[in-house]
Fold this protein.
Amino acid sequence: MYVLEKIREDVKESVEKACGLDLKPSMLSEPPSPELGDISTSVAFALAKQEKKSPAETARDILEKLESPPLIRKTSTAGPYINFYIDWEKAGKKVLEEARTPEYASSDEGKGKWIVIDYSSPNVAKPMHIGHMRSTIIGDSIHRLYKRLGYSVHRVNHIGDWGVPFGKLIAAYKKWGDERELEKDPIHYLVGLYVRYNQAEEQDPSLKQEAIEWFRRLESGDPEAKKLWERFKALSIRKFEEIYRELGVEFDSYKGEAYYALNELTNRIVEEALEKGVAVEEDPGTIIVPLEEHGLVNARLVENGRTLYITRDLAAAKERWEEFKFQKNLYVVAVEQETHFNQLRKILELMGYEWWKDCVHVKFGMMSLPEGRISTRKGKYVELKQVLDLAVEKAREIIEEKNPSLENKEETAKAVGIGALKFADLSQNRIKNIVFDPDKMISFEGDTGPYLQYAHVRCCGILEKAGNSAETDVDMSGLEPAETELVKKLAEFPEIVKDAAHKQEPHRVAQYLLELSHQFSAFYESLPVLKAGETEKGRRLAMVDATRNVLKIGLELLGIHAPSRM
Ligand code: ARG
């Protein structure tokens, strides 16, 4: 346990001992201003009610009986509240020791436990547009957070590689396809075919039937249909992987919809739902789960004899449970699919699967264009690849202008450009909608990713000037307020990481890092470091080193590289 957590525990225990009540988490908080100390408890309200005394009097009584916990230098009451002042000279020394290790903010709470996380999950034969970016980078960051807490994480890319649209693609390719064009630029070529087919269908409705017929052939294993479909899929995935490589994102499985559509598992789960009386056959070939009494729209498991998106998700969830016995099965998917995931959870619950509660829709707001909704079918989208290239190009220009003699220019431009883009998304509460504005999302000024990367570079620079020999046994006597504030911030990091993981909210880490770097600036601008006296210099360098380390770990948790120069 890290220092600050330990202090909170000790405070809790000693208060419990003094008043004979169990403290609820809400009874401990941070006082509204630093003059009131570091930790405050409101337990006197609860006890006063029992003892029919005034809360202020009760607080004084408790304080009298209280044995002061370790690392607390002072306790006092302020009306009904009891406040604790941490001895930062003693605690701070430990904070610095911890905050300078590469393991800082890690834990083993997840040891032997699995998290399954389903993210990115694009549809094949379509380009990844900026809308897919959110799931990809939010999911990646959440996976990093859980790993930090010691969980084993299984990363799934549940790709959309099944459904009638593939019948359309095959039909279109049979009509107009050109092997060489396909090779040249597969995804664009396929989208072109798809759009063309949809347009042609408006003129000639029989094309709809034709597409369905091709899809039926694909389902029944027709070699020609299968060969084309496999080809389209492999070419698409190859393109996706180029983007993942650039983003530094990886997966352990690409089991997508087709895997489940063609798997006995999926038929079996439908059978099971029927046997358990959860699903009913509405018409021959149509099986539904009535959900109206649960305030949801009915879910269709089978239509025209075919399983659907939700049926495959049911099978996938069950398979994941059987394979991993997960603590959590997370779906990082846009809020638009909320109904789908509510249905999924409800059906699992009705089927008697206790673990339905651990299937969580980690939803995020829409990404739209200034001119409106993204629609691949209507050709209204901005490709992710273009945006990534633009971000890196912009970073390259700035480096060229500000630091043309930098080594590893290309690598740094990538880290900075992509870092800016990731941070612009991850620093906002994920549920908020985002309008894609390249000037805002690829900005290097103000509270941005590059600003944090720069703070990290600055720390590295100071340490280098000091010969990278920051002391380990530091003297903390006579801390200045700006030092204490920085140490306090550093001490908060492990709890922030835990909280961010448990709530699946990377923005908590992002916001924390901004606060830390603001605190660091206040410290560095008000106090000398390299020119300070020996005692102060030693510990201030240790603070710079701790800040550097926490910035690095924090940025990595967001999937952002922290170069040591830029
Ligand atoms: N392919 C879907 C889409 O692009 C997202 C899939 C999300 N994952 C899942 N297990 N349903 O909308």
Notes: The pocket of arginine is lined by residues 118, 121-123, 158, 160, 313, 331, 333 (CB under 6 Å). The first helix runs from residue 3 to 19.
